[in-house]
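User: I want to check something. If I give you two sequences, will you return the structure for each one separately, not as a complex?

Assistant: Yes, each is folded on its own. Here is the first sequence with its structure:
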Amino acid sequence: MKWLDWIIVILLVAIGIICLSISLTLTSGVSSFDTYVSSLLSIFLWFGLPVLVLSIIYWYVKKR
C-alpha cells in the first residue's frame, strides 16, 4: 500500500471511532465534554492497545 492509502485508512478509522464516541455520549443521557472525552479515551484504549500489541508482535516476528 502507498502512503496515501494508509492516510485514507487512518482517517476513516479515526472518523469511525469519533462517531462511535459521539453516539455513546449522546445515548448515555449525560451530554458533556467530560463524558465525551472519557468515552473517546476508553474507546481509543480498547482499540489502540490491541493494535499496538499486535504491531509489536508482528515486527518482532518479521525481524526474526
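And separately, the second sequence with its own structure:
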Amino acid sequence: MNQITDRTLLLLLVGALTAYLAFQTPELGAAIVVAAAVVALLHSLLSRE
C-alpha cells in the first residue's frame, strides 16, 4: 500500500477548501474553475521531462 505523501495531502486539502468556497459563494465558482485549469495546465507543462 502506498503512503500518502505531503504533496498529495496538501492538494486534497486545497481541493476540498476550493470546493467548499465555490459551494458557499457561487460567484467565485467560475473564477475558481479557471484558476484550477490554469494551475493544472502549468503543472502538466512543467512536469514534463
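Because they were folded independently, the notes below concern the second chain alone. Residues 17 and 27 are 16 Å apart (CA to CA). The chain has two helices and no strands.
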